[in-house]
Design a protein that fits this description.
mainly alpha; two-stranded antiparallel ribbon; about 60% helix
């Protein structure tokens, strides 16, 4: 369901509600008090994003065309922390594709 929200709303929800954390209720309340001082509008933004989620509002999907001509909808899912392993895989794949492209052009 998070993918129906735009990325900014997803991040606001993660920052404010800390869904992925193992914090206790007291720690979460302390976290929210600190956020109020650092980013006073975050509680309101997170509340609006949560209301959109409950109402089932959907941000517009983007579409990608597959090599076979089929169109698929693409929606981002923001995570509270970057997936370092996934980033490393993507960067490695890009580097390998770049090297392969250079080899193909040189041949």
């Amino acid at each position: 369901m998070f993918s129906y929200l735009n990325p900014t709303d997803q991040l606001d929800l993660h920052k404010y509600f800390q869904f992925a954390s193992d914090k206790t209720e007291a720690e979460l309340l302390d976290h929210r008090r600190n956020l109020d001082a650092l980013d006073p509008s975050l509680p309101h933004r997170a509340g609006r994003a949560y209301a959109k989620l409950l109402r089932g509002e959907r941000a517009p999907a983007h579409y990608a065309e597959m090599p076979n001509g089929r169109r698929v909808s693409v929606r981002p899912v923001m995570k509270p922390e970057p997936d370092i392993k996934m980033l490393a895989k993507v960067l490695l794949r890009m580097a390998l594709d770049d090297i392969k492209g250079r080899d193909d052009r040189a041949a």
